Amino acid sequence: xxxxxxxxxxxxxxxxxxxxxxxxxxxxxxxxxxxxxxxxxxxxxxxxxxxxxxxxxxxxxxxxxxxxxxxxxxxxxxxxxxxxxxxxxxxxxxxxxxxxxxxxxxxxxxxxxxxxxxxxxxxxxxxxxxxxxxxxxxxxxxxxxxxxxxxxxxxxxxxxxxxxxxxxxxxxxxxxxxxxxxxxxxxxxxxxxxxxxxxxxxxxxxxxxxxxxxxxxxxxxxxxxxxxxxxxxxxxxxxxxxxxxxxxxxxxxxxxxxxxxxxxxxxxxxxxxxxxxxxxxxxxxxxxxxxxxxxxxxxxxxxxxxxxxxxxxxxxxxxxxxxxxxxxxxxxxxxxxxxxxxxxxxxxxxxxxxxxxxxxxxxxxxxxxxxxxxxxxxx
Length: 379
Ligand code: ADP
Ligand code: MG
Hints:
Number of strands: 13
Helix content: 40-55%
Strand content: 15-25%
Low-confidence stretches: none
Distance between the termini: 16 Å
Mean pLDDT: 96
Bound molecules: adenosine-5'-diphosphate, magnesium ion
Number of helices: 11
């Protein structure tokens, strides 16, 4: 990838720029917890966006996307937004830095990535973090702090790409650290690194390649349930709820609201249990919690689907240590923690069985927990 990007730079602009990379991310556990003030637990992965960048002394940005074989050229004022959606991520990052009083001038760039698009590994956050970090280094002496870089990516999605996302993806892409996951407290925005060294295991994402678009925005309905229960309990978010508190109002709320809140409360406790297990190097407990999360997402929160439940069943049958839906649900990936010696059989079985039932193979993405956004030469 590096050679191709450098070669494209030479061809388009002549000479050489500076290389920057930023990763996609996965989330071990902590699903649907962000909007409830709870914890998420992501890590950066070894799938990256890479860009070769050089200031060009003008007020224009010229970018070439190798993967899409497409060029964009734009100015740095609000009215200069490019048409292509991929270029709006880069334009948005420039604009968000400028809005915060940072400096961005014209530059030339070529870039490419191996984060699969739209598979739930956040290729968009990788793209934003790669450019945000690069422009911080090239034009701002790295004076913008890392959390602000993540916010710049998030605001880019909100203001230029029409995606109303949380902070987790950009946070993980910026702060990622080899052999560590990050527990991010979505209420205080404090975070802590935990060691993740699953020696003898592999981490693999299995992408069902299905996405069910449901009519009555299930996401908003889940959020509304959580908010109703929190209000009934007299607290701001379910972060402060316990099962005792929930059981005490069980008869006053609908069964649906009860099970939604139950999942959120249990999921918060599971994240904390996984942290303890990681410190103790107890990956069996980590795996058990992953299965419990899947069950909760499927039965109580009801955001699974037939295909994802099938992937989970196959994982269980193959003796996979832990497996669960990753992301919002209704399709996408499962994340799996698999013992080395069971890995090949699991991959073969999951491909064959899924294909036999649904007529296509799932995509397999092995991942390794890696460092966050950085200059390529720094690694
Ligand atoms: P994801 O879940 O992977 O973040 P999104 O739909 O949020 O999916 O973002 C995907 C978009 O990000 C693409 O449509 C494209 O505009 C941009 N993008 C991601 N990866 C690349 C790439 N390698 N080259 C060009 N654009 C990319
Ligand atoms: Mg995205």
